[in-house]
């Protein structure tokens, strides 16, 4: 495969895909293939798994298990294909078949050959932090993610809910971008993060009312604050 096709550092194209109901194929259900399968299922994808010995996958919702050796037809109609076998030459063939059918594909043993890589993920509700080293060091990507996890605690899931609710309520609408740009920094400067983490609903509401306007309550935003997240 043409390794010059690999993106130069910083020149790849991060994207947030919606995979609900879309067919993704994982060939090879070893330790690595199973990690890919878990991520795909979390995103609601329909997953076809091809492996002659697919341990403990039968009966999983949204998983079609094809318990035999790979054939080219297995990747037909897929949006994403993961060549995750322990056979490098086979992975290369899967990659070529997948691309011929219009799928985006990766070979887990050869980052340079494929179309995309997966980042290490930190999820806080609707907030997703994704860390990539462009294939340089997956272990470093995971370590950076773990550092971010200390800074961005579970309170950030609530933060995103509050920010999205304010936007949806048209208290800050798309037509008032400058307003959005000033309201959120003011809420953060007012320690919204700390107040949410402490579960201090009254202080959160005082801040909302000072920054956003009288009458803005957590209830009217549809938010119930978890008690003391830290
Ligand atoms: C290119 C890429 C392709 C892709 O899979 O997308 C790829 C490729 C390879 N990974 C290898 C090894 C390891 N990968 C992990 C873990 C993860 N690997 C992930 C991504 C990626 N791995 C993509 C690049 C991402 C980037 O560069 O930032 C993560 C972030 C996301 C995920 O997979 O979901 C996930 C974090 C899990 C988490 O969330 O904690 C660990 C650590 C562990 O297992 O604990 C090790 C062992 C330690 C080490 O080697 O660093 C090897 C060598 C295999 C060998 O030598 O046999 C190759 C092949 C090669 O480099 O040639
Ligand atoms: N991308 C990543 O994050 C990582 C990649 N790797 C690389 O990934 C590869 C796989 O690693 P593991 O999952 O640990 O190996 P593994 O040996 O646990 O799994 C390989 C799977 O491929 C299946 N397989 C073999 N031939 C097949 C065929 N013809 N059709 C369908 N399935 C077939 C096997 O039955 C097995 O279940 C290795 O080459 C390793 O170098 C390793 C660690 C991390």
TrEMBL record:
The keyword Ubl conjugation does not apply. It catalyses: precorrin-2 + NAD(+) = sirohydrochlorin + NADH + 2 H(+). Its EC number is 1.3.1.76. Pathway: Porphyrin-containing compound metabolism; siroheme biosynthesis; sirohydrochlorin from precorrin-2: step 1/1. Residues 124-150 form the Siroheme synthase central domain. InterPro entries: Met8-like, NAD(P)-bd_dom_sf, Sirohaem_synthase_central, Sirohaem_synthase_N. SUPFAM superfamilies: NAD(P)-binding Rossmann-fold domains, Siroheme synthase middle domains-like. It comes from the Bacteria. The keyword Acetylation does not apply. It is an enzyme of class 1 (oxidoreductase). Gene3D superfamilies: NAD(P)-binding Rossmann-like Domain, Siroheme synthase, domain 2. Keywords: NAD, Oxidoreductase, Porphyrin biosynthesis. This is precorrin-2 dehydrogenase.
